[in-house]
Amino acid sequence: MTNALRLGIAGLGTVGVGVVRIIRKHAHLLEARTGRRIEIVAVSARDAGKDRGVPLGDYAWETDPVALARRDDIDVFVELMGGAEGAAKDAVEAALQGGKDVVTANKAMLAHHGQDLALLAEEAGRQIRYEAAVAGGIPVIKALTEGLAGNEITRVMGVMNGTCNYILTRMEATGQGYNALFKEASDLGYLEADPNLDVGGIDAGHKLAILASIAFGTQVNFDGVELEGIQRITLEDIRQAADMGYRVKLLGVAQRSPRGLVQRMQPCLVPAHSPLGQLEGGTNMVVIEGDAIDQLVLRGPGAGEGPTASAVLGDICDLARGVKLPVFGQPAKTLEAAQPAQTGLPAPYYLRMSLLDKPGALAKIAKILGDAGVSIDRMRQYGHTNGAAPVLFVTHKTTRASLDVALEAMATTDVIASEPVALRIEHV
Amino acid sequence: MTNALRLGIAGLGTVGVGVVRIIRKHAHLLEARTGRRIEIVAVSARDAGKDRGVPLGDYAWETDPVALARRDDIDVFVELMGGAEGAAKDAVEAALQGGKDVVTANKAMLAHHGQDLALLAEEAGRQIRYEAAVAGGIPVIKALTEGLAGNEITRVMGVMNGTCNYILTRMEATGQGYNALFKEASDLGYLEADPNLDVGGIDAGHKLAILASIAFGTQVNFDGVELEGIQRITLEDIRQAADMGYRVKLLGVAQRSPRGLVQRMQPCLVPAHSPLGQLEGGTNMVVIEGDAIDQLVLRGPGAGEGPTASAVLGDICDLARGVKLPVFGQPAKTLEAAQPAQTGLPAPYYLRMSLLDKPGALAKIAKILGDAGVSIDRMRQYGHTNGAAPVLFVTHKTTRASLDVALEAMATTDVIASEPVALRIEHV
């Protein structure tokens, strides 16, 4: 009777409302571009009574997202609830089993269950699309899976948690410390309910694991991501980095090494004049390097109603146009199990510590570094306070393993006032 | 007998050879990603005997690209010859009429004949894909047509001629003038056979016209692009701009205005700290603004064997995967005829001229500007040479039409030593 693409939308938070709003506002534009009407049939959310600022009366209401996913009158199940487990995953599985395509923004679910869901979808001949799961409005999944399909991808990097970048760049701009800016971000509603998802690097790590799967033809392996948050970054780190021509970013890097797949999400120093170094506030950036393209840089809003809904709509339009793709760029059954690299490629490191005011303290540390094979490029000691002195080293290229040997040895001395901070200096 | 996607490639210059090289090198990768073998069946180029550094002996050779396009044993005709008219267009038409899909890097052909070719393709149920025609390796056609399909696009901007950006940024870096850098670019092989295609802004204008069509749902209208090259930019302009916090870029801008579609490709001043302002050398950048995404910035290599071949392969992989899209994002028969705006939106302008050393010269110019309704924000006169003094104005926001009235009036005075240079200051 109709050629419309019929949607069921589960989750009416910021993103869900944004999707409804675009579909209502741009009905004609979307039909002109896809050749089909995009029609919302039914929706689902926790609270049916809440005023969400968009009229929802035309749509059937399901209290249970699984029931929504099983409706016979939808073609596409749009999952915008979030959460790695539980209702979101149950509903996505029900949708795929029931012959529906899925559009989702759920990075946690894909990072933890992407391989199983992709197998399920591909056996059922269905699609899972998830542009909104990585880097908000930036169409990076499309660029990597489709636009760069002719490349062997050599490295993927990204600043993909806007809240962390907001905190780090505001520390530099305002001269306030981490705790004050964490509170500011919290007051502004920028933090997840569990803030460790943001500042602990977990959310960004989910995104990196998804990109790595597409880039390297490996099964998503979030457990293989070396994770470190921004909680220990001080204003002093940011200032010392700036003084040496760097900026501190929570940077994700995925690349193949002779030892296996490297996936790191950790605060790094990047050159201040590189595109990544210049990134301000909540904006995201993904850098993709391939053997033919050399380097592609994508920059855009990483969150928010409009940008995330834009990504969801891109996927919906693809489905309306009949685009069919393997979930992770090649069939899930052909993806290799990722072999996580035990240790990453060598790099210079920034090393900050506080040394107690004892004779020979610096000599002890210097000897420990030397014994571990870590050679020092620059050293700086900058003023005593309370019987301890902050000391800064920049090392020559070394492996994290060598550095860890040195850090362990330092911990057994009696000259360290607090646990040292070690930040990789990434050439981008 | 086979599920391979069979290609005929016309044109074995840098890009054609790059495409052959990737298909040979990444045969397995491409098959894993698309589910089909990508097979070159036949090729065509002017000189069959030339050693191009890749083995071509496995492929049938056609001297006539139209004959290649008509072969029964190809699925896709890959046109990499270039030229708006003649053999390239004849062969593309023959391919479409014969039921083949087309992949092309030919911006001139699409800028001049895109609408007719799209109508032809869509009537025949065939695809024309042209990612490589705009901004080299950057998958901008895909981002605009697919990734941002849920947006009403509000503005598209781009630095899309690497040679011009190379000349302008090298002028600043080396302190050499335009002519010296033009020669350097020529010696390095960066210039088209007709250099006016580059430095006159024509090549970049072709690209802008293509992007505008997709962005605004209008028929490609290259004649509607207001074109100005970089030939009159002096080192002094670049230095004065830098002194005020700007950089000079050959910038394309397309947007809807109340008066119609604005398409401008001209040297502009952009803020030095904006992503466009920071762009160095031959790199390209496209900025897309939409009502949901806000702003997306794409940065990558705009030319060269690898990047351009990467874009061609992206299109080929899409065809292998069965992706079908209207050529300009919505069916060609639904595209509106563009109504070119007679005059662009108001902006501040940078205005450089040389005034003869006559009493009252400056007063005359100031009066002319005032009479035309152009008000002055800043003025600077910086030293006489040979009886004339360079004078610089920065105006408040004004229309180009008002400025043109003033420029015409200035030309009738006896105080101007040479034709003034007027550069728009673009807020990006």
TrEMBL record, chains A, B:
Cite the active-site annotation. K207 (proton donor)
List residues of the ACT domain. 350-426
UniProt-annotated binding residues for L-homoserine: E192
Query: Which GO biological process entries does UniProt record here?
Result: methionine biosynthetic process; threonine biosynthetic process
Keywords of this entry: Amino-acid biosynthesis, Methionine biosynthesis, NADP, Oxidoreductase, Threonine biosynthesis
Q: Does the keyword Electron transport apply?
A: no
Pathway(s): Amino-acid biosynthesis; L-methionine biosynthesis via de novo pathway; L-homoserine from L-aspartate: step 3/3; Amino-acid biosynthesis; L-threonine biosynthesis; L-threonine from L-aspartate: step 3/5
Looking at the UniProt entry, the stretches that span the membrane are none
Q: Which domain of life is it from?
A: Bacteria
**PROSITE patterns for this protein:** ACT (PS51671)
Q: Which residues bind NADPH?
A: K107
Q: Which GO terms describe its molecular function?
A: homoserine dehydrogenase activity; NADP binding
Give the enzyme's main class according to its UniProt record, as a single word. Answer: oxidoreductase
EC assignment: the record states 1.1.1.3
Family, as annotated: Belongs to the homoserine dehydrogenase family.
- This chain's protein is named Homoserine dehydrogenase
Naturally occurring in which organism (per UniProt): Pseudodonghicola xiamenensis
